Amino acid sequence: MLSDIHSNQFIQRTVVANTSEIKANRNSSHRFLGYGIPIFKLDHIFEDCQRQQFHKMSHGERKGRLNVVKFLELGFAVACLVLHFYSFNDRDIMTSFLATGTFTGYIIVVIGVFAGVLMRAPIHKRIDIFFSVLGCTLFVASGVFIIEAWEFSFRTRTRDLALIKASLSIVNGVLFGFDAVFTFRDK
């Protein structure tokens, strides 16, 4: 990445001095960085820090399995949103708001995760776990509220679509839960 190259060059330029140059400059009026403190080249430490941060990222070595799970989550969220469009007559306005926000929001979140993976900028594992646990909660809650809203209505095509939407929402919530558990257990 371009920013990694610039930060690496900055560290190389800043930390190039060795002790012999500093000793030579102590007698002159210019001291290195104004203090005369010896600074050593820290490239290997910087690379180790980058490597450790990469291992804390969510999509490092487990890219194949994760792409399948995230693709399934995205597919279920899109299916829920399409079914929500065709069965939008939920009895409760709060159920409609919760379902619309959950389906649309998590389509955006999962597409953002895919974009991060494609640009080789994976998200941190803690953030991935947070989004997965929150997605699990929101999708299961949406599914339960939708079932509750349509449970005792007459059997129509709209009711059938709403119950299918609720079932897919609960399945996607369980999938987000498994994603959170596997991300947490992955080392």
Automatic annotation (TrEMBL):
InterPro entries: Ssk. Coiled coil: none annotated. It comes from Drosophila suzukii (Spotted-wing drosophila fruit fly). Keywords: Membrane, Transmembrane, Transmembrane helix. The chain crosses the membrane at residues 66-87, 93-117, 129-150, 162-184. It comes from the Eukaryota. This is Uncharacterized protein isoform X1. The keyword Transferase does not apply. The gene is LOC108015333. One of its GO terms (cellular component) is plasma membrane. The keyword Transmembrane helix applies. GO terms for biological process: septate junction assembly.
